[in-house]
């Protein structure tokens, strides 16, 4: 079989990006990086340093890949501005493509479960859908909801998402005595059941 890809695409500028770069070089194809975050942003680097990830390696990988990418797709003007400022030589290779949300598919989708049945201890659910990292403000959501969770026994906080700060936040929630009131439900692509 012959490898016939027109472009090699990576959804990060780290491990996935390095693998994509190697494949693109091997098959002489253009490399496209997709960035939803600025990998050089201080808060992002600190998040991964606290989460135990190899922050220096990730930064080196991003520095290596940025000038070598044939196209860089960014998800926000914030990231676009940051990358253009750091790498002016690749400015003409940067494309802003905000995330697409298929609202029709969401509207027409049927829930697969009822959160109130899954967590019957809660009559009122506060839902947070987010990556659990420094930019997400998940910790702020927990801190903001904490007084309500303490005062009203049937209110619960469900957090959908994952990330490098999850373990630390779970410990913080437990030490605050809120482990029974805050559910870290993990990552999923099936959000309809939570939102309908």
Description:
The protein has 196 residues and is of the alpha/beta class. Helix content is 41%, strand content 16%. It has helices at residues 15-27, 42-50, 55-65, 77-86, 103-108, 115-118, 138-151, 166-175, 192-195, and strands spanning 8-10, 31-35, 71-74, 94-96, 124-129, 155-160, 182-186. β3, α4 and β4 form a beta-alpha-beta unit. The chain is elongated. 24% of the residues are buried. The model has no long low-confidence stretch (mean pLDDT 87).
Please describe the biggest sheet, giving its number of strands, its sense, and whether it closes into a barrel.
4 strands, parallel
Report, as a whole number of angstroms, the end-to-end distance: 45 Å
DSSP strand content: 15-25%
- Spatial strand order of the main sheet: 1-2-3-4
Mean pLDDT: 87
Question: Which shape, going by the Cα principal axes?
Answer: elongated
Question: Could you write a compact summary of the structure shown?
Answer:
The protein has 196 residues and is α/β, with parallel strands linked by helices. 41% of the residues lie in helices and 16% in strands. It has helices at residues 15-27, 42-50, 55-65, 77-86, 103-108, 115-118, 138-151, 166-175, 192-195; strands spanning 8-10, 31-35, 71-74, 94-96, 124-129, 155-160, 182-186.
What's the SSE blueprint?
Blueprint (H helix, E strand, L loop, with lengths): L7 E3 L4 H13 L3 E5 L6 H9 L4 H11 L5 E4 L2 H10 L7 E3 L6 H6 L6 H4 L5 E6 L8 H14 L3 E6 L5 H10 L6 E5 L5 H4 L1
Parallel strand pairs: 1-2, 2-3, 3-4, 5-6, 6-7
Helix pairs in contact: 1-3
């Amino acid at each position: 079989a012959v490898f016939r890809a027109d472009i090699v695409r990576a959804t990060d500028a780290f491990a996935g990006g390095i693998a994509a770069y190697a494949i693109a070089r091997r098959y002489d194809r253009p490399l496209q990086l997709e960035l939803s975050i600025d990998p050089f942003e201080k808060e992002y680097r600190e998040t991964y340093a606290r989460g135990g990830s190899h922050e220096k390696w990730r930064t080196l990988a991003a520095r290596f890949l940025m000038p070598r990418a044939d196209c860089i797709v960014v998800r926000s003007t914030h990231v676009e501005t940051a990358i253009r400022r750091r790498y002016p030589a690749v400015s003409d290779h940067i494309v802003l493509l905000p995330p697409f949300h298929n609202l029709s598919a969401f509207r027409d989708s049927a829930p697969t479960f009822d959160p109130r049945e899954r967590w019957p201890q809660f009559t009122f659910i506060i839902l947070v859908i987010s990556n659990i990292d420094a930019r997400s403000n998940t910790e702020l959501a927990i801190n903001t909801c904490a007084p309500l969770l303490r005062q009203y026994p049937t209110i619960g906080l469900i957090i959908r998402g994952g990330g490098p700060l999850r373990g630390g936040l779970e410990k913080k929630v437990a030490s605050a005595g809120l482990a029974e009131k805050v559910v870290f439900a993990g990552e999923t692509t099936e959000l309809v059941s939570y939102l309908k």
